[in-house]
Amino acid sequence: MSARHSNQAVPPPHARPALWWPVALAGGVFLFVRLVLDPPARYAASAPVFFFREDFFQQQLRRPGGPLAFAAAWLAQLDYGAWLGALVFTALVALLSLATHRVLRGAGGGVERAWAVPGYVLLLLYAQYDPPVWELGVGVLLAVVALAAWSSLAARPGGWQWPGFLVLATALFGVAGPFPGLLFILVAGLHALVVQRKWRAAVICWAALVPWWFVVFVAQSNDLRVVMQSWGRAPSVILVALVYGFFPIAMLASGRSSRWFGSGFTPIKLPAAGRSTMHGRPASRPAARWLWAWRAGIGGLAVAGFLLTFSVQHRAGWRIQAAAERGDWQGVLDAAAPLRTIPLPARLQINRALFHTGRLVSDLFTFPQQTGVPLLPSLSDGASVCVPLSETLLELGQVNLAEHYAQEAVEAWGERPAALWCLAQINLVKGRPLAARVYLNVLRGVPFHRAKAAGWLRALEQDPTGLSVDGVNAIRALQVRADTVERFFPVESLLRPLLQANRQNRMAAEYLMAHLLLTHQTARAVESLGLWADAGETTLPRSLAEAVLLFDHTRGNRPAALHGLKLDDRTAPRFEQFVEALRQNGDQMTLTEQRLAAGFGDTYWFYDVFGRNPGRAGVTLHRGRP
Fold it and tell me: Which spans in 310-372 are helix H?
């Protein structure tokens, strides 16, 4: 062996960079997004309107940042599939982390150790469900890639630095929009100042902020407050600020360390456990323990940051909507199990799920209820109820009202698939196949809805009446012809005409019973038991049986007429326990409510006495149709 070859240093096997832990980290992010955050819930919450149409694409290209908005809207559609959405988002986090490491490594000063921070904050943003995380994440990624490219140009001789800066800044502004362009300009100037130590170059970079500010806020009249509103709630705005603010702060940190320690400063690295030091000796146990303690501390901070920003209630509401859009009614109830306060849109879908699983009148109070919350809200309760209310009214047979709320949903939220499907089905029920084709042709341009829309269009070609489409004929049989033109419509005035039009309308009958119970009309609910007998039932559902026992207890001289219906053997002994517990606790209602909630919080008796109930969804969650 020659001297030249003998003097070459061959790195020992243990000194090679370990690749297993980045792969394991990416796999952990993938599983966490798929199993915990649930991409379909994000699709239901914030997937923007997107069409595979030339006019839609041309419309996006007419404004700065339009190409990014188009690409991000397409990526957001991938959340419709749980595994696909998790995979693509994990790839976005990985690319952002790699690009961040590349930029920070060029800055020096040890700040490259923070390469995972932007990806971690992006994960927290994803868990907020509301903000446009795809547009934000891809925009920051493009800005960081542009920074890496410009730093490479700045390090090379030949005068390519400034033409490259102008090309990158202009292209980034046109493709990604104002905020990624601002990030690039700001951090490029800091890079020139603290890394290259060229203050004139920094001033030249920052001079580009003047035309940027004029174009964005003067020529285009953009309002920063309007842009920030699209980012979602206050926690989301803070997280977006952290993503954008991280890179300037990291640059300043690297420059500060260079000034303090000199340009040749190399941060001290703790030896990893089980590896050799520069002298070939194994790492000492105290150093290894300190290293693992440091890693555990970083992991604890990451978990704490997630717990501080994540809301189980918020996720559950969107998981309910996502499951309802797929017709997964058991999935709706599973998603609703952890809820303790239920917003009106989610409540509408939970009631639909209880009906479709045969449990509306038996398990209504296994979920939290509150006196004064209507079974069927109206537009006065906000535009967020429009889609689930339209779907509920359509199934009940109030087709005209369903069309009104579906049109309101399109007006408020744009051409989103859920509202378009409602309008297509409504027009088929009302015998307007040409109008239904309009909505179906629009849905044929939406990813993951194309196949179903094409199937409906083929069915209309074979049968223009639309009777061959699933559910159309059933709704026509329930359809009521009279209109209700009230802004604050009484629920009973919607349900009684449906039963008059078709006494076999099981959904209207169950919703009427649920409405009477929720409004404490125990006597009227008992008087309406004939509806249950006419439906061929032999046993009273649990909530109605509880109402009968309460009626007999308060009006013992006139017991309820059961029309041949039987009570569950377990309900009467439980009622006696409730009455005895209520008597023993006396007049201290607040203390009594707390004591009885655990044993009777899922009963109509508890709700009737206290005006609310905590529910106990997990107890009866997987009971089937009685």
Answer: 312-325, 329-336, 344-356
